[in-house]
């Protein structure tokens, strides 16, 4: 009996120690409930800012209507996005139609290829202070996303889009798959690389860089997102919570999809 107790105690200590090493202590983490409401599978991905750890291996598979919980340490800063139309069973490059990270399932810190809709998050070290987050179309769009705290609050919610930008995307901004379907919509900056669209160099200030016909189109479809670098008022949300919900395709329509 004593030997059994010692083995049980040792196993319990191992679990505690392993939990500590792997960062699974909820008291020291923020939880992100990543939910896929799209009518097709997606491959959510994460990339940490410099100096912050990779979370969830940088990417994973998420079937339609399922949720995966992802943990990040306090003071974590980084981004989430979704890859679509992926096929990791062949040697084809890229492996995904949108958001690809060098053909890998686990991006392991790599940033996805734009255009993608980006969730940008800054978790504060002080748990009593609000965390900051936004959704950005500065590089373009591939899926609508909503973000809110687990206990839903209107002031903590970034809503989805009222229109599917892939359907209204101008021809010069479209990203097509091999079937000729529009799978993403580039931003004007990504498409044309002009200072006036990218808010760079002599246009690197809010006074000089103004909304364009393209950013206004993005804003009309997705009013809660950053449509260009100096979008005003800044659609940045700050709310203190230990749990957040990131939903891909939060509205009922979800968008079209064709696998590669």
Automatic annotation (TrEMBL):
UniProt-listed InterPro entries: Osmotin/thaumatin-like_sf (IPR037176), Thaumatin (IPR001938)
GO cellular component terms given for this protein: extracellular region
Disulfide bonds: 38-249, 86-96, 101-107, 156-239, 161-222, 169-185, 189-198, 199-209
Cytoplasm is among the record's keywords: no
CDD domains registered for this protein in UniProt: TLP-PA
Entry keyword set: Disulfide bond, Secreted, Signal
A Pfam family the protein falls into: Thaumatin
Keyword Zinc listed: no
Subcellular location: Secreted
Signal peptide: 1-27
Protein family per UniProt: Belongs to the thaumatin family.
Protein name: Thaumatin-like protein
Organism: Salix purpurea
Lineage: Eukaryota, Viridiplantae, Streptophyta, Embryophyta, Tracheophyta
């Amino acid at each position: 009996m004593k030997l059994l107790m010692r083995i049980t105690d040792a196993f319990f200590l191992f679990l505690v120690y392993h939990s500590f090493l792997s960062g699974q202590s909820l008291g020291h983490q923020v939880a992100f409930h990543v939910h896929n409401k799209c009518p097709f599978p997606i491959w959510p991905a994460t990339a940490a800012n410099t100096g912050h750890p990779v979370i969830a291996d940088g990417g994973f598979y998420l079937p339609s209507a399922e949720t995966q919980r992802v943990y990040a340490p306090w003071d974590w800063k980084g981004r989430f996005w979704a890859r679509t139309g992926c096929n990791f069973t062949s040697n084809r490059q890229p492996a995904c139609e949108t958001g690809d990270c060098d053909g890998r399932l686990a991006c392991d810190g790599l940033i996805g290829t734009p255009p993608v809709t980006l969730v940008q998050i800054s978790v504060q070290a002080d748990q009593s202070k609000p965390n900051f987050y936004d959704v950005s179309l500065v590089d373009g769009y591939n899926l609508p996303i909503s973000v809110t705290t687990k206990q839903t609050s209107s002031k903590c919610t970034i809503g989805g889009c009222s229109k599917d930008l892939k359907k209204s995307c101008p021809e010069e901004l479209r990203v097509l798959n091999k079937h000729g379907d529009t799978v993403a919509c580039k931003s004007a900056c990504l498409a044309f690389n002009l200072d006036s669209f990218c808010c760079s160099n002599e246009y690197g200030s809010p006074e000089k860089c103004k909304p364009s016909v393209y950013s206004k189109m993005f804003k009309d479809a997705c009013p809660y997102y950053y449509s260009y670098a100096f979008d005003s008022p800044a659609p940045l949300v700050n709310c203190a919570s230990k749990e957040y919900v990131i939903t891909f395709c939060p509205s009922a329509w979800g968008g079209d999809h064709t696998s590669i």
